[in-house]
Specification:
Blueprint lengths: L9 H7 L2 E3 L10 E6 L2 E8 L5 E7 L6 H10 L17 E2 L15 E3 L3 E6 L8 H18 L18 E4 L2 E4 L2 H20 L4 H26 L4 H19 L4 H30 L7 H14 L5 H17 L9 E2 L11
Helix pairs in contact: 5-6, 5-7, 6-7, 6-9, 7-8, 7-9
The structure holds zinc ion (ZN).
Zinc ion binds next to helix 4.
Length: 349
């Protein structure tokens, strides 16, 4: 990442009368442009570490038939103006609306939902010029406008409301009437309060999550015995399973819950290793057979004599613990409202 980042999109924002959020700090690109263009809302920014690259979000009033919009975008030859001739749009994915903690497959370059299109493009070394990005965003907006109407001053969450200006909700530009804004804020506050009132059932959470940890350990040992390998994916799966079980049992998650989730994930992998050694001993010495205590002894012996062998399972279990902690973060209940700052003034010609 570049050390001295400076604003690059100001002129563009000014030309379009859009809101420009200037660069802050020096580690990450935080510059963004958001506003309304040809009746649609858009936002352009740089993704962070876990999802790097140029991000373009275009929002439109809810469409009934997402597949049809996708087909028209795929078939629109004007989008050949995008990088790589816009070819990745042929693999455009439809957004299922589900949030994933762990993504197994790569993120699609184009993601289309009933109210938005997200286009992400990674740049390894050189970022594209502002004028180029501006032209791409315009091409996308033009293409969508050809197949679906713009907002026309209407609220997007109720049938009758009027919205003259967009608001920024959870960092996304939205057209929302004042009634809907107030309703959303009150709903958020009530959900927050209800969540704070519920008591975390720690013991229930521990019981269910322990069950999940045992299941995870057995699977870990089984996979190990069959393949003689350890898999990071297995540890991530255990972390996700333990977190899911804890949340079901406890109802509410807190810092204690996150620690429990992490500890049980690490324990689950350790249990898996002990079981794995038990199986191994049983295979080598059928006269001893499968015994948990011999597995435990072999596990401890390995730690004492050649701890390097246990390094990989340990690292993977920590990755799994991190996944569990991420999965047990407090859910976001209230939408975050921001007033968009004043648009950049157009320069008098
Ligand atoms: Zn409304």
């Amino acid at each position: 990442m570049s050390l001295f980042l400076k604003d690059q999109w100001q002129q563009w924002a000014r030309q379009w009368g859009a809101t420009h959020v200037p660069e802050k700090g020096w580690m990450h690109r935080t510059e963004r442009v958001l506003g309304m263009r040809k009746g649609l809302l858009f936002r352009v920014h740089w993704g962070r570490d876990e999802d790097p690259g140029l991000h373009v979000l275009i929002r439109f009033p809810s469409v009934e038939n997402v597949e049809r919009l996708r087909d028209s975008l795929v078939g629109d030859s004007s989008l050949d103006a995008l990088p790589a001739k816009g070819a990745p749009r042929r693999k455009m994915e439809l957004d299922s609306g589900k949030k994933q903690i762990v993504r197994w497959n790569a993120r699609p370059e184009f993601l289309l939902g009933p109210t938005s299109l997200v286009w992400r493009r990674r740049y390894a070394l050189k970022a594209p010029k502002p004028a180029q990005i501006q032209a791409w965003v315009d091409a996308l907006i033009e293409s969508i406008v050809r197949s679906t109407p713009g907002f026309r001053g209407r609220c997007e969450t109720c049938p009758a409301g009027q919205a003259q200006k967009f608001v920024v909700v959870d960092e996304q530009p939205m057209m929302m009437c004042t009634t809907c804004q107030q309703r959303l804020m009150i709903e958020g506050e009530m959900a927050e309060r209800a969540y704070e009132m519920t008591e975390a059932q720690h013991l229930n959470g521990v019981l269910l999550a322990s069950g999940a940890a045992i299941v995870g350990g057995v699977v870990w040992a089984g996979v190990g015995a069959l393949t003689h390998r350890v898999f990071a994916m297995a540890a991530i799966g255990i972390g996700a399973l333990v977190a899911w079980a804890y949340r079901r049992g406890a109802g509410r998650v807190d810092a204690v819950g996150r620690v429990i989730g992490a500890v049980l994930t690490v324990s689950s992998v350790a249990l898996g290793e002990v079981l794995f050694y038990s199986i191994w001993v049983a295979q080598q010495r059928p006269d001893i057979g499968f015994r948990f205590d011999t597995g435990w002894y072999a596990y401890m012996f390995t730690w004492a004599k050649s701890p390097g062998e246990e390094a990989m399972p340990m690292i993977f279990s920590l990755v799994g613990a991190w996944v569990a902690m991420k999965a047990l973060e407090k859910p976001k209940l209230a939408a975050k409202f921001e007033e968009p700052s004043e648009p950049e003034q157009r320069k008098a010609a």
